[in-house]
Here is the input.
Amino acid sequence: MPKVFIADDSALARAFMVRCIQLSGVPDCEFFEASNGLEVMEKLKEIQPDLIITDINMPKCNGIDLAKRLKADSVLCNIPFIVMSSAGNNEQRAELEKLGAAKILSKPFTAPDVINIATDLLGKKESDSQDDGWGDYGEESESNENNKPEETEGEW
Here is the structure.
């Protein structure tokens, strides 16, 4: 079961990230949350996540400082991390890339952005029976063996 740590001072942003990952098809994840980088570092003494997602702008310890602390720790330095940023600062981006950020998500980003990154970094369920949210729509029909569209008269 993958462990994902999400750090953001916005509870709504953390909830959004959790929901996106849940919808991504990644096998059941265990989520851990913090509102700043100091909380993350404290909790990382007890758990070792498979992925850390952090906002860049947080009180007490921001995303860049958190990335520096992760990089400096021999145990934590190999955990992939994603940084969410509303700042378009190229110097910050370059520093985060140098520190080994797996991805930098520029705000605003969309649920599919998060889903794609989550599946890339955490994997996806191997089950073909995964619910894609479309129900039976698009399933093969037994009454139409050749799978050809039925001819209809008129326009839609």
Remarks:
- The chain has one domain: 3-122.
- The beta strands are 3-7, 30-34, 51-55, 81-85, 103-106.
- Residues 11-23 form the longest helix (13 residues).
